[in-house]
Amino acid sequence: MPDPSTYRPAAGTIPEAPGVYRFSDQHGRVIYVGKAKSLRSRLNSYFADLSNLHPRTRQMVTTASDVQWTVVSTEVEALQLEYNWIKEFDPRFNVRYRDDKTYPVLAVTLHEEFPRLHVYRGPRRKGVRYFGPYSHAWAIRETLDLLTRVFPARTCSNGVFRRHGQIGRPCLLGYIDKCAAPCVGRVDAEQHRAIVEDFTEFLSGRTDRMIRDMERRMAAESEALEFEKAARLRDNIGALRKALERQAVVLGDGTDADVVAFAQDELEAAVQVFHVRGGRVRGERGWVIEKVEDTAGAANLVERFLTQFYGEQAALAGSADDAIQPVPKEILVPELPDDVDSLTEWLSGLRGSRVRVRVAQRGDKRALAETVARNAAEAFTQHKLRRAGDLTARSAALTEIQEALGLDSAPLRIECVDVSHVQGSDVVASLVVFEDGLARKSEYRRFEVRDGAQGGDVASIAEVTRRRFKRYLAERDRPTDGANPGIDPDTGRPRKFAYPPNLFVVDGGAPQVEAASDVLAELGVTDVAVCGLAKRLEEVWMPGDPDPVILPRTSEGLYLMQRVRDEAHRFAITYHRQKRSKRMTASELDAVPGLGETRRTALLRHFGSLRKLRQADLTEIASVPGMGPRTAAAVLAALHSETDIKGES
């Protein structure tokens, strides 16, 4: 465990100016980023008595081996630089306010030619408009069921959409007029997008004008004696009003605001946000995060949350809907940050107009803030009930593994390798990474096993281990010219395989463990522990030991190792199925000279199937992007006899 005093800056070298600082571990990886009005005061606090530090802060400073800082001229610059560094380095000890995947949202895929409405859980993506979150997925489906009567946009998956386009018949929703059926050409792309835009406009709060327009149209149809059309409009107005009843007016003045509240203890905090647009609650989001530093009040949490959350919102806003501002006019918080003026200036820059950050004092806004605070407290209570002892359990698991395997320190970074194949064919392997007992999916890797494929699992494990740690040694020994050794200077992101694990786990018993251990010894890697987890009796094998280590069935350490092994198995199986499926889809097109994978994929995507491609003529094939008359003729030659080609020409 590194001693913070070994890398503490010399007395008087830390400036008193405002700036941004970052702690790095022994491999040069940035593990924490922060900002301060006075760098000297803030950084000196990290090198005080360890026993007085917050537990997560203590873990961070003992994991780090270096600290660097950058001086800036204003607090606004510090906010922007801190946000950019957190996004660039993804430090493990920084709180990341990512959208809670527990709550479903209504997603509108505006980036597609025919946008789709569907239930979605996951991180926000560019080109997609989101409404919600909702408390239950069925609430979204009820909303869609009501609104698709008025706005018949497609809700089917891309596979279903393509399939019905190929067979030339719409699905049931198309027959009952709850979908405009763009798959069979009832409406073109422009008409369908107009339907979707009306749908998003309605959910964005522009409801009164839309209902008034529909009422005028209903009256006009009645006067023209078109009673069936008038009745349909009447039903549509009723459906819209029923959907509106689900969104209660909370602010009568039509305010656009986000209301933020926190509930916290010494180690964790729950964040709750209500998005109010046009006076109505349009969505709600929640997070539970681990705190890195001890904060007496909510001021520091408010600043961190607003910086990261609205920075992410602004980054994702452009391609989805330029008319919707990522930052509202007003943000109501429980406590003002220390430098609220700088924060307000930064948020106003993101919005392009003035933003107010304030504490609600009285009236409807105060009552709504109290409601959001009660929701945050309830969410925090439920989190504690669901994950009671979770932090303790993860720490206990790492400690148990350390003691059972005789390691020098707790394995904060665990990597696991698994091999997948069918009777020796399509041999692939996966590498998964767990840090602090949690999966770090951005660092997962996949391997196509080449040399070791004929030697069974043992040879495959040896090959993957050799390739993984050769890359690590190459990254470690690469000249850096004084730059951060773990960061690629071209992309600004962590280099692949740049950091070694504390524990390297293989899926298997003694032979697989010995193979991996021999490779590490051959490469001169001596600071990585190796073990294997055998499926049959869940035995842990160590290199050179004739007998396995048996962990109790109720052990948190065994449970963590099982999760790591099962995740590696899942990742390997998924890759193997993808590769096998790709191999088995070989068709008549594979032998066409000059037709590579990209153009073959473009052909199948354009026509939908080989059957429709066979029905196409030379001109239609040549019109596909990337194709030409010569390649189109070669495709026809592969799909038809010579007489068929002459007949078509």
UniProtKB/TrEMBL annotation:
Keywords: Cytoplasm, DNA damage, DNA excision, DNA repair, Excision nuclease, SOS response
InterPro entries: GIY-YIG_endonuc (IPR000305), GIY-YIG_endonuc_sf (IPR035901), GIY-YIG_UvrC_Cho (IPR047296), Hlx-hairpin-Hlx_DNA-bd_motif (IPR003583), RuvA_2-like (IPR010994), UVR_dom (IPR001943), UVR_dom_sf (IPR036876), UvrABC_protein_C (IPR050066)
Residue span, UVR domain: 208-243
Presence of the UniProt keyword Phosphoprotein in the record: no
Subcellular location: Cytoplasm
Annotated segments matching region Disordered: 474-493
Residue span, GIY-YIG domain: 16-95
Domain UvrC family homology region profile: 259-520
A Pfam short name: HHH_5
Assembly, per entry: Interacts with UvrB in an incision complex.
Family statement: Belongs to the UvrC family.
Function according to Swiss-Prot or TrEMBL: The UvrABC repair system catalyzes the recognition and processing of DNA lesions. UvrC both incises the 5' and 3' sides of the lesion. The N-terminal half is responsible for the 3' incision and the C-terminal half is responsible for the 5' incision.
Name of the protein this chain belongs to: UvrABC system protein C
Underlying gene: uvrC
